[in-house]
Design a protein that fits this description.
The chain contains 11 helices and 20 strands. The chain is of the alpha/beta class. The strands form 4 sheets. Strands 16-15-14-17-18-20-19 form a 7-stranded mixed sheet, sandwiched between helices. A 6-stranded mixed sheet has the order 2-6-5-4-1-3. The longest helix has 19 residues. The chain is globular and about 70 Å long. The chain binds S-adenosyl-L-homocysteine. S-adenosyl-L-homocysteine binds next to helix 7 and helix 9.
């Protein structure tokens, strides 16, 4: 039998619309634009061709996702392992160039690093990995990924954080989260000089919201006086604000998140008030009670999960921003975020502008920011960019 690497992969033919999308630099083809994928096994590496048979590149194929094709190269690939290893090396080298003053960052960001379906976050000496697609979940691929990561990073452990819903959507067998290599499951990491507890078995996403790392530091530059961190999770904004503010409160509806927030405050020798509440109710109550702040952070979960919920999402953002603006003293600072991909940067600016008009406040943009650079945005793959973070002076 020939070694697998010399067997040419099967070919998936894509319709004109899919081919055009690829020619424009995108990396996805939707199932509706696939002409033929008969007999192709879930998670295969495939060649991609247009209807006339012209070769367009090599991709991961998913039999379950609406995104049937995720490109991994514009070329033919005869050694997948070498390609994966090179891509991981490139991703790490990029972070070495751009990440400063933090021992935590995203090392691999899926499509944005040309490794569709793989996320690797570093928390000091722990690596947390997420596998999101059939092809990335194939055992030989997992083995190469783990081997390359452990060669390049001296990690005390590599843990996997499973998103059961994603595995279900990809029709992958259920799998438990857990340690893949070595044994350590908790550590302390730091971002911008602030320390945080990390536990592999707890929290949302891979543990923390590393995509806000650069925004924490930016917010701390303008923060002053009394501050309120709304949707504070484990207290990352709050702890950064505490470097500059006289008093800081954090609000979240998740008790486990606030328990970690409290331990994080102790770790940094800070006194912060943590409030377990529904943020919408609390903002309404505080605003009508005439409570005032000098700095407010709004970092809600994604309101728009799809295009259809855009209008509702925009109303949600408007409501939150309105209430926050009402509570800011003149010269106050609003740090307002949206992590919904479906809310465009222009949508978001408009919503915040409207909220300002409604409360008769002038808003001056201090910074118009996005996700940290270790979560790269590919210009031709707009879906890689999702986080918006506006810092405004409220006059
Ligand atoms: N600012 C945080 C990330 C926030 S993620 C950071 O930088 O780390 C969104 C947070 O909103 C989660 O912690 C979640 O528990 C919380 N949340 C969701 N719905 C909420 C609600 N209605 N009221 C208060 N908190 C809520």
């Amino acid at each position: 039998m020939l070694p697998t690497s010399t067997v040419p992969p099967p070919t998936v033919k894509v319709a004109r619309r899919g081919a055009d999308r690829l020619k424009q630099g995108h990396v996805w083809v939707y199932r509706s634009d696939v002409v033929s994928a008969d007999g192709i096994a879930p998670g295969s590496v495939v060649g991609v061709a247009d209807e006339r048979g012209k070769f367009l590149g090599t991709a991961f194929y998913s039999s379950a996702s609406q995104i049937a094709i995720r490109m991994i190269s514009r070329d033919r690939i005869d050694d997948l392992d070498a390609l994966l290893r090179r891509r991981i090396g490139d991703a790490i080298a990029y972070r070495e160039r751009i990440v400063q003053n933090s021992d935590a960052c995203r090392l691999v960001f899926s499509e944005a690093d040309f490794l569709p379906g793989l996320i690797v976050d570093r928390y000091n000496d722990l690596l947390a990995l997420q596998v999101l697609t059939q092809a990335m979940d194939a055992e030989p691929v997992r083995e190469v990924v783990l081997s390359e990561l452990s060669q390049r990073i001296q990690a005390a452990a590599i843990v996997e954080r499973v998103e059961p819903k994603i595995r279900e959507l990809e029709q992958l067998p259920a799998r438990a989260s857990g340690v893949l290599q070595r044994e350590k499951t908790s550590t302390v990491f730091s971002m911008n000089g602030v320390k945080f507890h990390y536990s592999a078995a707890e929290g949302q996403k891979t543990g923390a919201f590393l995509d806000q790392r650069e925004n924490y530091a930016a917010a701390a530059q303008y923060a002053h006086g009394e501050a309120l961190d709304v949707f504070c999770y484990q207290g990352s904004f709050a702890l950064h604000l505490a470097q500059a503010c006289s008093k800081v409160s954090g609000v979240d509806s998740s008790r486990p998140a606030l328990e970690v927030a409290d331990r994080n405050a102790a770790l940094n020798g800070r006194e912060i008030e943590w409030i377990e509440a529904n943020a919408f109710d609390l903002l309404r109550d505080y605003a009508s009670a005439g409570q005032q702040y000098d700095t407010i952070v709004l970092d809600p979960p994604a309101f728009a999960k799809g295009k259809r919920s855009l209008e509702t999402a925009l109303r949600g953002y408007k409501e939150l921003n309105l209430r926050a603006l009402k509570m800011l003293r003149p010269g106050g600072v609003l740090v307002t975020c949206s992590c919904s991909y479906h809310v465009s940067p222009a949508n978001f600016l408009e919503v915040v502008a409207e909220a300002g008009r409604d409360v008769h406040r002038n808003l001056r943009i201090l910074e118009n920011r996005a996700q940290a650079r270790d979560h790269p945005i590919l210009l031709n793959v707009p879906e890689t960019g999702y986080l918006k973070c506006l810092i405004v002076d409220v006059i």
